[in-house]
Prior knowledge:
By secondary structure, the chain is mainly α. It is about 65% helix and about 0% strand.
Amino acid sequence: SFLAARAHEPLAVAAAAALKMWRELGWCDALRPLVSPSELGRLLGAGAMFAKLPGADVSGLLDPSPLARHA
């Protein structure tokens, strides 16, 4: 997180920098990564899987088996 990356600074300085960054952040900055071609492909693949179209398999998106190693 932002504050963890600035743990070496006094809290007031880090908090002021976080607030400045938050105030300068625009919707385009936050949403641009979500509207990339790769994300669009992922979204379409997930939609195809949920619509049960043949050949659509993004089971890794919903596969909880990797979590079993940490249980």
